[in-house]
């Protein structure tokens, strides 16, 4: 572990020395809270993350400290990048740019961040809701891409249900986007902290609970627990169960079972994001996100079941 700490410190030092002139110019433009947030993000990502063990612990070796902390870093990073996107690109363009990029990484993290922001910026409810739907819709093609890389046979089976969910989500986002009004730049001063670390830590704790529950389900019910595991795992993150089922479809699991499991996990994750928007966000944002995501999840499940 000492070697990892030394290596991390060396990387940070090398980066600071290499870009010291550029960093010096940036530092002059940063507010005190922005600099503090940047240092916090650097600490949890570049310093702490590399030293965590990347192997399983606890019951069924289910808890991987590196993977869990990576999710914490991801959520914190979304709030950090979103803040500066809105500050540099303007509120409207920044919201949508962040949503599109976050959809390729973690639409759940983006949903949590925008839901919290909507409580402080109620007049941005249409814009934030549209951004959440863009991020959620981007997740579905990403799932197809990852699954197809592992097992190309999954592409033909997954494309229909995932295309249905993508189109419904994007269409809803476009409709809501046309109703949005970009607030004046002066309101950016009232944005929340550039780095939302507490929600990220809470989500990491939730992820631990979900992983343990999912492993218990598959341990108790065997192959019959695949769908249960997919539904439970999708609550926190769709990627781990997507990777697992895609690998299993190569030999240990039928193609149809893997496809249905992946769609269930994606739908479960979509429902969770709808609930986050409702219970964490403002009433206006929750209403605008809930109906499109429920419709997309239901349509995707129905398509997968019929095919």
Output the helix-strand order. Answer: HHHHHHHHHHHHH
* Mean residue pLDDT: 80
First and last CA, distance: 50 Å
Structural class: mainly alpha
Q: What's the β-strand tally?
A: 0
Overall 3D geometry?
globular
Count helical runs. 13
Task: Provide the helix percentage.
Answer: over 70%
Oligomeric status of the shown chains? single chain
What amount of the residues lies in strands? Answer: under 5%
As a whole number of angstroms, the C-alpha radius of gyration is 20 Å
* Total tally of structural domains: 1
Overall description:
The structure is a single chain. The N and C termini lie far apart (50 Å). The longest helix has 26 residues, at 125-150. Helices cover 80% and strands 0% of the residues. By secondary structure, it is mainly alpha-helical.
A few lines on this structure:
The chain has 307 residues and is an all-alpha fold. The chain has helices at 2-18, 20-29, 32-48, 65-89, 91-105, 107-120, 125-150, 153-177, 197-221, 226-236, 238-248, 255-280, 283-306.
């Amino acid at each position: 572990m000492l070697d990892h700490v030394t290596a991390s410190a060396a990387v940070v030092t090398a980066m600071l020395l290499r870009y010291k002139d550029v960093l010096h110019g940036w530092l002059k433009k940063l507010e005190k809270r922005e600099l503090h947030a940047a240092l916090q993000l650097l600490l949890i990502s570049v310093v702490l993350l590399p030293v965590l063990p990347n192997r399983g612990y606890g019951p069924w070796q289910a808890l991987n400290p590196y993977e869990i902390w990576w999710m914490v870093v991801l959520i914190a990073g979304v709030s950090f990048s979103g803040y500066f996107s809105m500050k540099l690109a303007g509120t409207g363009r920044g919201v949508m740019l962040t949503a599109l990029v976050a959809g390729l990484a973690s639409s759940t993290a983006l949903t949590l961040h925008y839901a919290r922001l909507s409580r402080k910026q109620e007049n941005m409810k249409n814009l934030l809701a549209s951004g959440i739907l863009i991020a959620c819709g981007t997740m579905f093609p990403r799932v197809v891409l990852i699954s197809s890389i592992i097992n190309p046979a999954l592409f033909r089976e997954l494309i229909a249900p995932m295309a249905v969910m993508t189109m419904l989500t994007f269409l809803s986002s476009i409709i809501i986007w046309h109703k949005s009004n970009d607030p004046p730049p002066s309101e950016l001063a009232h944005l929340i902290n550039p780095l939302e670390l507490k929600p990220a830590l809470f989500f990491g704790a939730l992820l631990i609970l979900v992983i343990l529950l999912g492993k218990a389900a598959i341990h108790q019910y065997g192959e019959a627990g695949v769908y249960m595991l997919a539904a439970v795992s999708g609550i926190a993150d769709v990627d781990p169960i997507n990777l697992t089922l895609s690998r299993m479809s190569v030999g240990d699991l039928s193609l149809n079972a893997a496809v249905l499991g992946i769609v269930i996990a994606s739908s479960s994750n979509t429902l969770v994001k709808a609930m986050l928007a409702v219970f964490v966000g403002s009433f206006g944002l929750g209403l605008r996100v809930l109906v499109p995501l429920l419709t997309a999840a239901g349509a995707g499940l129905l398509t997968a079941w019929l095919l």
